[in-house]
Amino acid sequence: MTSPAVVTAFVLLGTAILLTKPLGLYMTRVFQGERTFLSRLLQPVESLIYGACRIDPDEEQHWASYAIGLLVFGFACALFLFVLFRLQGVLPLNPQGFDGIPAPLAFNMALSFISPTNWQALSPEQGVSHLSQMIGVAVQNFAAAAVGTSVAIALIRGLTRRTSATIGNCWVDLTRATLYIFLPIAALIALFFIWQGVPQNLRAAVDITTLEGGAQSIAQGPVASQEAIKTFGTNGGGFFNANSAHPYENPNHWTNLIQMIAMLAVPSAMTYVFGKYAGETKKGWALLAVMVILFASCLAVTQIFEQDGNPRFEAVGISQEATSEQAGGNMEGKETRFGIVQTSAFTNASVASSTGATSSAMSSMMPIASIVPIFYMVTGQAVFGGTGVGLVSMMIFALMAVFVGGLMAGRTPEYLGKKLEPFEMKMLMAGMLALTISILVFTGIAAASRAGTESILNPGPHGLTEIFFAYSSAGSNNGAAFSGLNSNTDFYNYTIGIAIFAGRYLVLFPMLAVGGSMARKERLPATLGTLPTDGPLYIALVIGIILVVGALSFFPALALGPIVEHLLL
């Protein structure tokens, strides 16, 4: 790795780690119902919401009731989005006069935005009205982030409570997450973006004449507000098709850095929240250590292979070394403003955090480097991951590591003093299999059918990677796109939408069941045979489980796609 790459990694990860404790402490106080510095301002609003919706904040729910509440909320949001997208042509705040979005695409986008996937098979600035962007896309960015955070908090309560039949109230958690965490911090980030030149208006596109005499239409709109929650809420849907490569979404190096930090902030803070609830912050730091080690390793792989460039260029005498006169390496698909170092860091931060935003063309990455974003996705976004969902996925592997450690020691596995029994292990495997099935089954169907293959721009191993990447992005609720696949067809709109739904609810609900089951158990004292879950041995064991159980499940698809493409070079 080059010196700038090392400095970038140090600044990015260092800032995320420094924010972990203060943000995690604040989030813990919010969800425990304690007073914060915003309580005087926001508590009357919170009480008003409870009164209007007839919510008793002191009444808690069984895990099944909690899950049903989130499912009903998701269906209501999806229906609202579908109707909004279909009718946007006759609704106000549509200065470009866009027609309603076709039903298959509206179905796909509705399911996409109720999760933090934000998959968009169209150019938003050329098909989505300002009204749809504001009360549809932006509002759901807040809602999806709140849902993920609420599930994580419910799971944490389940793991840390003793002999309890409840894991919280989903409506209270959704309200507090939105009101106290995402709204105020996103507002500050939006103000910073406006200061740096990100547009925030309701104007129509501006038609200009370029220096070469050509005509160009430059879209505008409420960009800064959406950009803020897009990154801080780990959603990723850009106002523009070019996403964070567009200078209106990402004007300079300062906005680039703030976006990367914002994407990692809540996922890293959730590990401290877990430690505080458990009464042992070392256990939270251990999970963060797993994330940081894997993230740093993946970032190194991306930087090295992207900087080394294409060996075919070397064969014909084209130098790809970084010098004072050239960036060197693989600059295809990169923003020249940011280069390989900043682009690689942004790709890792966005895909690892399940944001899915991009500042480059991921399909132009070197084959081995392109495995890195796929790795983040197929391991369930356990490395940082989305707001809350990252911790939920990490807990799957953390609990599986305890199970494997118990098998090796010949004793019943325990975590936080509670025994892991057959029901918990079945639910853990159900969550893992739901992700695996939602990715591999749909990939196989698309690769074997004409409806799937006729949308491929680049046949061969790269084409298979395009399909695999799309369903990995959908199943893991990431939203990152691998250019070259025309996903705006009925086949892909419906199948990707179903994969998004399966990856969202068929993974989260089993983990809520685990939380509900663990909450009923008494905490047993540690013995000499108890596996410590806050030391280097456990950290190494969790990393091994992620690599062996998570990543290797998808090795055949990787071997037929990016690995073969690398060997062909």
Explain this structure to me?
- Helix content is 63%, strand content 2%.
- The two termini are 22 Å apart.
- It has a two-stranded antiparallel ribbon with strand order 1-2.
- The chain has a domain at 22-279.
- The chain is mainly alpha-helical.
- The protein is built from 19 helices and 4 strands.
- Helix 1 (3-31) crosses helix 8 (253-278), helix 3 runs antiparallel to helix 17 (490-519) and helix 4 (103-114) runs parallel beside helix 17.
- The longest helix is centred in the N-terminal third of the chain and has 31 residues, at 130-160.
- It is globular.
SS element count, helices: 19
Going across the biggest sheet, name each strand in turn.
Answer: 1-2
Name the assembly state: single chain
Tell me about the largest β-sheet.
Answer: 2 strands, antiparallel
Radius of gyration: 23 Å
Give the strand tally.
Answer: 4
Helix content, binned percent: 55-70%
Label the overall shape.
globular
N→C terminal distance: 22 Å
- Give the helix/strand class: mainly alpha
Strand residues, percent: under 5%
Low-confidence stretches: none
Mean pLDDT: 91
Structure described in brief:
It is built from 19 helices and four strands.
Topology:
Layout: H1 3-31, H2 39-53, H3 63-87, H4 103-114, H5 130-160, H6 170-195, E1 206-209, E2 215-218, H7 223-232, H8 253-278, H9 281-308, H10 311-315, H11 339-352, H12 367-378, H13 389-409, E3 414-415, E4 418-419, H14 422-448, H15 450-453, H16 461-475, H17 490-519, H18 536-550, H19 555-568
Antiparallel strand pairs: 1-2, 3-4
